[in-house]
Amino acid sequence: MKHATLFSTSLALTAFFLVSAFVRADESAQALTSRLDAIESKYAPDLRLDLFETTLDAKKQTARVATTSKEACDAIRQVAADFPGWKIDAALYPEENLELNGKWRALVNFSSIQLQKKPDHASEWGTQSVMGTPVRILKKEGGWVLIQNDDGYLGYATSGSVAAKTEEEFEAWRRAKKVVWLENYGFIYAEPSLDAPTISDLTPICTLVWKDEKVENGFYRVETPDGRLGWIPQKGAMEYDEWLDSRELTADALIATARRFLGSPYVWGGATSKGMDCSGLVSLTFRINGFNILRDVSQIRREGIDVDVSQGYKNFQPGDLLIFGQKRSNGTYSWRHVAIYEEDGRFVHSATSVHESSLDPDSPIYDAYNARELIKVVRMIGAPYTEHFHPLQGRSSSTQN
Predict the structure, then answer these.
(1) Domain 251-391 adopts which CATH fold?
(2) Per-residue pLDDT tens digits of the chain, which is 401 residues long
(3) Is 223 left (phi over 0), alpha (psi -120 to 50) or beta?
(4) N vs C: which end of the chain shows fewer Cβ within 10 Å?
């Protein structure tokens, strides 16, 4: 009986210590999770623009974070000192993603590709990118790659949508003379003739290497990012550096560009001449004028110079961005729509299609719904440059200052 009692006591003590260990591990995991959440909130608050993926195993006391934020990486490495029993790793993507073998630079292969929320063809579109746009591959997932577009936006694309490059290959592309397609639609032809077979279609700002700087019969000889050779009409294109030098952000230029797409269909997540949503129209309009701007309405509203809306459109200037939405009961806002202001209350936007509407109740194109929900106006013309609002990059090194 005495031995049975000692055995039972031993089992109870063992169970107590095991439970205590599990409780401590769980508390430690919760504390670490809380710290990592705080780092994410501070350094990667918008997961449309930054990767922050955490894998945590409380039982093994291991944690690994993959992120595109160097500041987040540094903070995680400092946190590790406060959890001595844990193995905590932080990897800066894409540079420290070893599965990419150094080929994390890439160029978009086609006239337009979708960046989707998940690696699934049925997944929602986040945005689009066009041929020759430099992107970063963050990771591979099956037949998909998670890429970061040159405007910072993240999304999944099929592996064949982009041409992966080493640093040396990417530098060679950057140094090469390039041409940019400017018209709403176009084609790359197999021969320097409009009667020749096509090898690809084109949308605005598709950028191609000017192969051997050759011109024949009014066509540029070009090479796509994945190595296809062809010809594009000179009248629809321009040397890239020359085009970049010609860009100036003016109200007339923004409005004229937006009006080029009148009648184009509304496409959720679209940002090309093939179809666009409201913020896709804005981002495409700015890109054609040589400027990068954030992609979504809720992001755009954080940029630029705030314009007084208390007196209707009296203080608005052509080229201003009108932002529509609703104020929630808790004081926050739902940002749902954006448009480009023209003048006299008129604006151009993409809703069902790209068209003009008005804030003026006496106008035949008065838009009562949007006029009622105009909550913010920002002015990008003359606004200071930021991380996401700035002139496009990509000049060849031979012409850079």
Answers:
(1) endopeptidase fold (from Nostoc punctiforme) (3.90.1720)
(2) 545 554 454 444 343 333 344 445 578 999 999 999 999 999 999 999 999 999 999 999 999 999 999 999 999 999 999 999 999 999 999 999 999 999 999 999 999 999 999 999 999 999 999 999 999 999 999 999 999 999 999 999 999 999 999 999 999 999 999 999 999 999 999 999 999 999 999 999 999 999 999 999 999 999 999 999 999 999 999 999 999 999 999 999 999 999 999 999 999 999 999 999 999 999 999 999 999 999 999 999 999 999 999 999 999 999 999 999 998 888 888 999 999 999 999 999 999 999 999 999 999 999 999 999 999 999 999 999 999 999 998 655 544 43
(3) beta
(4) C
Given the candidates 2.30.30.40, 2.40.170.20, 3.60.21.10, 3.40.50.300, the CATH classification of the domain at 99-172 is: 2.30.30.40
Name the pTM for this structure. 0.89
CA angle 165, 183, 239 (to 5 degrees): 55
Tell the residue number behind the tokens 């930021």, with chain if given: 386
Cα 50 off chain centre by: 10
What stretch(es) of the chain map to CATH 3.30.300?
21-92
Q: Report the 10 Å Cβ neighbour count for 203.
A: 21
Q: Rounded to an integer, what distance in angstroms lies between the CA atom of residue 326 and that of residue 337?
A: 10
Residues of the chain within CATH 2.30.30.40 domain(s) are 99-172, 176-246
Q: Which residues are catalytic?
A: 278, 337, 349
Give the Cα separation of 283 and 115 in Å (integer): 15
The neighbour count for residue 97, using CB atoms within 10 Å, is 18
Give the DSSP per-residue string, 205-223. T-EEEEEEEEEETTEEEEE
Q: Are 282 and 300 in contact (CB under 8 A)?
A: yes
Provide the CATH number for the domain formed by 176-246 in this structure. 2.30.30.40
* Partners of 165 in beta bridges: 105
- Domain 21-92 classified CATH 3.30.300? yes
